[in-house]
Amino acid sequence: MKVFDIIIQAMLSLRSNLLRSWLTTMGVAVGVFSIIAVMTALQAIDRSVAAGLSSLGANTFEIQKYPAAFFGGHGRNRFINRPDITYEEGLAFKRLMQEEARNIGLKVSRSGNQATYRNRSTNPDVVMVGADENFTAANGFDIQQGRNLVEQDILYARNVILIGHEVYTTLFPQRSDPTEQLLRINDDVYRIIGILARKGAAFGQSQDNLVVIPITRYRAHIDSRQSVGITVEASSRSTYSSTLDQAVGAMRTARGLTIRQENDFELRTNESLVESFRDFRQTISIGAFIISFMALVTAGVGIMNIMLVSVTERTREIGIRKSIGAPGATILQQFLLEALFLSLTGGAIGIMAGTGAGNLIAIAFNLPPILPWLWIGIAIAVCSAIGISFGIFPAYKAASLDPVDALRAR
């Protein structure tokens, strides 16, 4: 028989037991789905991490109370029970580092705010940032229109506000000039002085859905006890390491730590973010691999079982074909193709469903959808190996049947 005829015969044989064939493919689909879905989501997050690092800046690092990635668990109390970084300590740090860094910005923030202008309102998910005049430069924001915060705004705790691009497009859909207009945030009214240029998303979160007010007004009217974050921009990449070392010493001095006391603050650098994400990704990947491996092995056993049943049911058919001259190699190829087709069909279903599910997770976190071509190729190769490995014994058994004994079967 020609190869094409063998393929047609194999597909017709599977079609004759359609329900059983589909149930068999579902085992493979589940295993492939789990690994493809997880790896699609992780690759989307990986891209977001890269974008987030570029938004932080190559020469920029942050000093915070908590680590770059804080998932709780072991050591949780050590971070929670740390004293907050106070505004006064932030000011002391700025004085100590004013000759060593290009920009040093202080900030605090709170999510879940709603901005209102006349009869238009944003969703209650706007981030309110209390910051000083160096916030925009240190954090890579540009002023699209109007002006930035100035020292006098901070000194006198003025009720002025910068609005992010997303807030601007929501409240001013006609793209009119919003400067000097009054904006209500919760129960307070602020005068708009500028618009921040679009910055995009980082780590799955929009960087444009925010408003910025003077940190002194934030402390006076919203929360005076919140831990302060400090963003430091080194003068150049060549001085980054020395600036980082000097910042640690300056922060220890500002916090009043003795030589025997360990740091009670964290540095958020590009390297710390990458390391945190790498650990997270490795843990999730191992879990997904174990689940997928168990599902695929189970599916392979199911394929072997179904093919052995098929050989038993079609013993007389095999005897007739061999008696009229069909070689054993042709029968072996047909049964092997049936097993391979079952495995690859399940793999295709798992790839499509897994890619869709992974991208739904990515879209839910404002991440760009992707196609994990490497893992799709790996899944196809693994499914092929599963089909061949677990189909070879039933196929060999069918090809080895004696035609006389096979014709006697009922």
UniProtKB/TrEMBL annotation:
Keywords: Cell membrane, Membrane, Transmembrane, Transmembrane helix
Subcellular location: Cell membrane
Signal sequence interval, chain numbering: none
Keyword Transmembrane: yes
ABC3 transporter permease C-terminal domain location: 289-403
Membrane topology: Multi-pass membrane protein
Primary location class: membrane
Transmembrane segments: 21-45, 286-311, 331-353, 373-393
Residue ranges occupied by any MacB-like periplasmic core domain in the UniProt entry: 21-245
Pfam families: FtsX (PF02687), MacB_PCD (PF12704)
Similarity-based family: Belongs to the ABC-4 integral membrane protein family.
Protein name from the UniProt record: ABC transporter permease
Organism, as annotated: Prosthecochloris ethylica
